[in-house]
Every structure is written in structure tokens, then in C-alpha cells.
Fold this sequence. Notes:
Blueprint (H helix, E strand, L loop, with lengths): L15 E5 L14 E2 L4 E15 L8 E16 L8 H7 L4 E8 L3 E8 L14 E14 L5 H19 L1
Antiparallel strand pairs: 1-2, 1-5, 3-4, 4-7, 5-6, 6-7
Amino acid sequence: MALPATTIYTTMRGATLVFGADLAAVTPPTYTGGEQVSCQIIDAHIATSTQTETAPATLCADSVDTIVGVTRTLELTAFQDWTDPAGLCWYLEENVLERVFFSLSILDGGVQQGETTLAPIQYGGAAGSNLQGSVSLPVYDITITVPTLGTTQAQAKSRLKARAAAKSAA
């Protein structure tokens, strides 16, 4: 029997996306020299996809798919604010094909840092709507920092340990 799961809900409000020339520029909490572009972003996430190989069937077994690789991309959707020379649209446009470091930090959700190659965001859109653009950036050499347990998470973990100990003692 599995232990009951505890879920702590996290939102993207207060998340930070920073680009910079080196790892120090994108390391929380100081972001020394990094470009913070969070306020124009509607959606920022790191998407993953897997590559598989199929081992052929044998006389004793069916074919089997095996995961042989994982790729990640930094997916961004943002308001197209072309009036802001320090905003995301112009930052991406002025640094096309530059390889830079990035840090995506979610409050109480840890930090994922890595390198990416910049590409321009989409330009234009539907008449009469707020212009939004999206871009998909490749991610290299990702580092994941696990969140520090907050009070609620620590309490939940303590309760789960106590339940498990009581169950094994019974």
C-alpha cells in the first residue's frame, strides 16, 4: 500500500527569468549583470521530449522501446512590447544566435539554469488583439536546484514519516 501523497501548489506569480553572459549573471538571488525579462512574459516553461530506440523482437520477447536521450527547450510566450528597448523582444532580436546562460526560478519551486541559443520572438499577430509572441529555445547543460522545504512541506513530510512509523510498528 502506498503512502498518501501530499501536494503543495505553486504558481508562476513571482517567477523570474534571467539571461546573462555567464552563470554568475543568472544565479539567484543577486543576478549580477543579468537581463531580467520576467514582466513581459505570459508563459515560461522548460519542455522535455524523449528520444527512443526500438530493440527488435526476438523469438522470446516482443520489441521494446528504450529511452536513449532527453532534450529540453525553453518555451516562452510574451507580450510583444516593441516600444521597450530593454524588453524581451529587443533583447532576443539584438542577440540572435548568441549562446547565453539563463535561469528560470519559481518561488518555492527551485531553479533551473542552463545555456541556450537565442532566437527572435514571433512578430505581429491577429488584428484587434494584444500582440503576443512565442519562441522555443534549445537548452544545454541544465542544472536543477531543488526547492528548500517550506514550513508546510516540512510539516507534511513529518506527518508522512510518523504515519509510516506507526504503520510499521503495528
